[in-house]
Amino acid sequence: MEKYESSPYEALSWDKNKDPDANQSGLYITPPELATDITRCALDLMGAGRNSVFFGDPAVGNGVFFSILQHLLDDSSIKSAIGVELNNQIAQSTRSKWSRYGLEVNSGDYLHFDSKPDRNLILGNPPYVRFQHIDKAYGQLLREKATKASGLKISGLSGLYVYFILASHSWMREGAIGAWLIPTEFMDTNYGFALRQYLTTSVRLKKIHIYDDALPQFENAKVSSCVVFLEKNGAREDDYVTFSHGGSIDDPQQSRSFSIGFLRSKRRWTFEMLFGEPVDSYGPTLGELFEIKRGIATGANEFFILKRDEAYDANIPDEFLVPLLPKSRTLSSAIVRRDAKGLPAVNNQLFLFDCSLEELELRRKFPLIKKFLDSADEMGIKDRSLIRSRRLWYRQERRDPPPFLCTYMGRGTNTVSPIRFIKNESDALATNTYLLMYPKPRLQVILDQNPVRERDLFDLLQAAEDADLRINLRKYGGGLRKIEPRELGTVRLPTLPEWLKEALENKLDF
Predict the structure, then answer these.
(1) Residue 11's pLDDT is what?
(2) In this predicted structure, what is the pLDDT of residue 414?
(3) Residues whose CB falls within 8 Å of the CB of residue 48, separated by 6 or more in sequence, listed in order
(4) Strand-pair partners of 180
(5) Residues 225, 212 contacting (CB under 8 angstroms)
(6) What domains appear along the chain, each with residue ranges and CATH number?
(7) How far does Cα 59 stand from its chain's mean position?
(8) Where are the beta strands (DSSP E) in 184-263?
(9) Model confidence over 23-46: pLDDT tens digits?
(10) What pLDDT, on the 0 to 100 scale, is given for residue 495?
(11) Confidence band (pLDDT; 50, 70, 90) for 12?
C-alpha cells in the first residue's frame, strides 16, 4: 500500500468554521490534532493487532482518520481500509485523494449498508443530527432496524450518532476496537439509556474522555464532546472503565475509574458523579417533599410578558396582568420579598398577559385593547404550535404562586452553583426558566405550624446546591448545566432537621 508522505494536516485542508448550517446537516470535520490523539489511543488498545489493521470509518468525510492512521503505522500494517460517505461530492473528493493509498470510499447511506467486510478497527465521528432534523419515517425505520439488531429499546429522541454506533456492531469482528467522537449528552439523558446499556452489556467499554468545555472541539457545535473507546467482547461486571476530562487523552486534567457494575447501577452518568467530590446526604429527596412542576411556557414571551409601562401603553386592564418573576440573573437576592400589593419587590417588575374571556367578549368590553391583540397577528405568533393548540390563544397554564423555585439551567463558577434555589414570598408566578416547587400537603401543614421552619427548609435547599444537586446536573457545551423535574426530585437534603425527621419517622402522609 502506497504511503502519503506529506503532513496529514496539510492534506486535509481543515476549516473549523466550514458550515454555518452544521447543526442540521450534522457535519463537523474532525480536527486533525484530535484525530491523532484518538487514533493513537485506539491503536494502543489494539496491542499486537495494530500490526494487521482492517480499518473502517462509517462517516469518512475528508479521510482524516485514514490520513492519521497512515502516518502512525508502517506501510504493511494496514491490510484494508474502507470508508463510507453519504455526501456524493465529498465521497468523490476523498476517493480522488486517498484511493491510490489504499482507502476504498463507498458513497451511500452507511445505516443501510447491510453487507460489509468485517473490521478490527473502527474510528468514527458520526453526524450529529438531532432527532428534530431526522425525517420521521426514516427515523422510525432506523429505530426498528436498530431494535431488531441490538434487542435494545431505542428512544425516538436519539440523535443519528446512536444508530451509527449500534449499526457498527455487526461490522466489527470479535476483539475489534471502536473509537467514537460523539456528544456527551448520551451519558445523562433518558434517551441516552439505550446507548449506556449497550456500552455496559454488549461490549467491553474501555475508556471515555470528555473534552474541556472551555476549548470546544467544534466551535460551531453547541455541544460538549467526548470520545468513547470500546472493544467487541462480552461485558464483565468487574471490568473497570476509565473516565477522563480535560487536557488530552494521554494527559487529562482528571481521571477516575469505575466498575461496569457501578455504571450499570446508575440511572445516569453525570459529570459531577464522575468527577465531583463524594457527597454524603442523609435527608429525604425533594420528590418526597415537593410537587415539582415546570414553569409556564407562554409560547411567545416577547408578546405575553410585559413591563408595567408596556402594559399601561397597551391599555391592558390590571385584572389580566399576572405578576411574574424576572430571570434569576437579575435578582439581587435568593429571597424575593413582596411589596404591599403582593408583587415581587424587584426593579423592572414583569407581568404576564392572561385572560379567560372569549376574544369577542374581550374586545367588546375592553375596546382599547384592540391594538395589542391585533399585534399578535402582525407578529405571527398565533401560528406557533403551543399557541395554536390552546382553545383561547392567550390563555396561560394554571399555576399557583410557588413558595420555592429552582433555576432550570445555568453556568455558574467554581464558587457559585450553576443551579440556584429561590424563595418566593410574593404572589408572582414564573416561566419555564424555573422549576416550581410546591410543598406537599402534610409538609405545608408542618411549615404553617412554625414560620421559622420555612426559612430552615430554604437553608437546607441552599446547602444542597453545593452537595447532592450538582451530582444530578446534565452537562452541555460551554459549561451549561441543566436539571429536569424528575432529576430534581431525586436530590436529597444534606441533613435532616428534627422537626422534619419526626414527621418522616411517624410516616405522616406527604
Answers:
(1) 40
(2) 60
(3) none
(4) 124, 228
(5) no
(6) 26-275 (3.40.50.150), 277-297+399-510 (3.90.220.20), 301-396 (no CATH)
(7) 23
(8) 204-210, 225-231, 240-245, 254-259
(9) 444 455 678 888 999 999 999 999
(10) 78
(11) very low
- The answer to whether 160 and 182 are in contact (CB under 8 A) is no
H and E: helices and strands count for the chain = 21, 20
Q: Using one digit for the tens of pLDDT, what is the confidence trace for 269-281?
A: 988 788 876 555 5
Beta strands in 232-320, from DSSP E residues, in sequence order: 240-245, 254-259, 290-294, 305-307
- 277 three-class SS: coil
Q: What is the C-alpha separation between 376 and 265, in angstroms, rounded? A: 50
- For 398, the grid coordinates are 394554571
Q: What are phi and psi of 143, to 5 degrees?
A: -65, -45
pLDDT of residue 149: 84
Residues in the chain: 510
> Closest Cα to residue 117, out of 63, 67, 172?
172
Q: What are 212's three cell numbers?
A: 474541556
Q: Measure the CA–CA gap between 254 and 244, rounded to whole angstroms.
A: 5
Determine the Cα–Cα distance for residues 454 and 444; give it in Å rounded to an integer: 9
What are the backbone angles phi and psi of residue 227, rounded to the nearest 5°?
Answer: -125, 130
pLDDT for 232: 96
| pLDDT tens-place string over residues 440-466 | 988 898 899 888 899 999 998 988 876
Average pLDDT of the segment spanning 230-249:
91
